[in-house]
Amino acid sequence: MIAFILKRLGMVIPTFIGITLLTFSLIHMIPGDPITVMAGERGVSAERRAELEALLGLDKPLYEQYFVYISNIAQGDFGKSLITREPVLDEFLTLFPATMELSLFAALFAIGLGLPLGIIAAVRRGSIFDHTVMSISLAGYSMPIFWWGLLLIILFSVTLGWTPVSGRISALYWVDTVTGFMLIDAWMSTEQGAFTSAVQHLILPSIVLGTIPLAVVARMTRSSMLEVLGEDFIRTARAKGLSPLRVIMKHALRNALIPVVTVIGLQVGILLSGAILTETIFAWPGIGRWLLESIHRRDYQVVQGGILIVATMIILINLLVDVLYGVINPRIRHSN
Amino acid sequence: MTTLSKPMAPPSPLREFWSYFSANRGALIGLYYIIFLILLIIFADVISPYHPYEQYRQSFLMPPVWEAGGSWAHILGTDDVGRDMLSRLIHGARYSMLAGAMVVTLSLIIGIVLGVLAGFYRGTFEVVIMRIADVMLAVPSLLLAIAVVAVLGPSLLNAAMAIVVVSMPHYIRLARASTISEMSKDYVISSRVAGASSFRLMFVAVLPNCMAPLIVQATLGFSNAILDMAALGFVGLGAQPPIPEWGSMLADARQFVQSAWWVVTFPGVMILTTVLAFNLMGDGLRDALDPKLKQ
Fold first, then answer.
1. ipTM attached to this prediction
2. Considering A24, A96, A268, B23, which has the largest number of Cβ atoms within 10 A of its Cβ?
3. Do A26 and B131 lie within an 8 Å CB cutoff?
4. Which domains does chain B show, CATH number per domain?
């Protein structure tokens, strides 16, 4: 088991080095002089130019720059924002809980709805229910979620007035940041109604972000269940006279879940991509919006550091899924 | 003496493919919709009632014809500067489809060349190429595309380039995997013995036998390209105004969410239906081209 984990870990290191090379070269691939580009139309004074060059290490040879970059990262230093002058890691850690909260609820929505829909569709294969679920999931899979979000806002916020349009909580409430998770902070705060407001703000963004994963989970669950339901041991279980519910929930589902778990793990990247769009639509103060704004503000330090942190996180999560998969399924662990 | 009846000739591969493909209703709908879109982009200048940039000052944000205040002059209404929605949507198809076609062609060609070379020569070259592909797959595609556009600067062409970079690794992996599995087959060995050059082996002998999964991936890649293009346009990193690209039309329309539903709804419907059509066709192609599912 330990050998298996170490082997997987060893495969991750070259990928990580590759990503540092990618983010490192990002700033060098800017056509022309990066400092002129960063300064934009206002231009830059000679002192500020020298200061920036020293800050970015642009006055040193390339290999030395990369070495400094890597050793800074090893010490947890991802550079400072060119605009706020705050360390990139600090900004990331402040904003991350918002994205995490949104992604968690999106995943909950996708799994909570996708699993049962997929199971029922598989059990009632060929029924109207099955066709409906599959059609909807195909549409969900093809959905431009930034448009989907706007549609839901038109319907639920503008026409029906059920949910707020943007933000994490109504401006009427002042909630102290303790954990960074608005639901928990609002729960603990003394303000009446703060928690309800936080829940209302979370509903639409979670649905929007969870739509594509929902479609993927429902499709995957259905096809995995169909495969398992055709196996001999299911026929045996049925022949033994077990109740259909028991056969489906206990014998079939357990075996069908393995590929579904992998697919859910792979959705993490999709969730973070989607978070960029969802946070933009709902003015949700998370890392997606932060990255996008830094691009528009030409804050390349944040772009560079932010992408590196996010990519590293995804690699680690994929590693975790990989290892968990090996734990669930010994055949993977012992192959090759 | 009885005459042996002539054995029935096997159906031609194309006919066999079509009989499987056309049995899938969704795939046919997708195909017809794509043909419709192609006709639309060819005849956009003839069909669209107005020029997409022409502003009609007497009618800002006019609703579509079936709403109160609508008029037959602008069937789907007008946007905030009085441009005809229908004309902009029709012309928008050009940008999305052409960008999609460009992305798929470029990433397919580069991906095939690198993938086949990696699968053919193996060794260090393969390791380097595959590691780079792994790194690119580890970053979410939209994030990577955004990073590339951040470097190159926002424009329609740069956004397309970014998506080419992002979608390449999929083709590299597929082409390499199928090349490796083909390389050990007898026909490759025999043509090698017959003295075929490496180039001939790679691109004349092996490649045609690896095309099926690549064609499926290219169709699905088309829908991803359109979706990513629109997403980049939406966040302001793709096509710049006044280009009527669907994603950037949505970005302009965002401020009218509360007042003018039609400027928000129609561009999205176009994106959704186009992506859906390519996904439907891709599923159909996979079923028709995958020999395992044919049985």
1. 0.85
2. A268
3. no
4. 24-293 (1.10.3720.10)
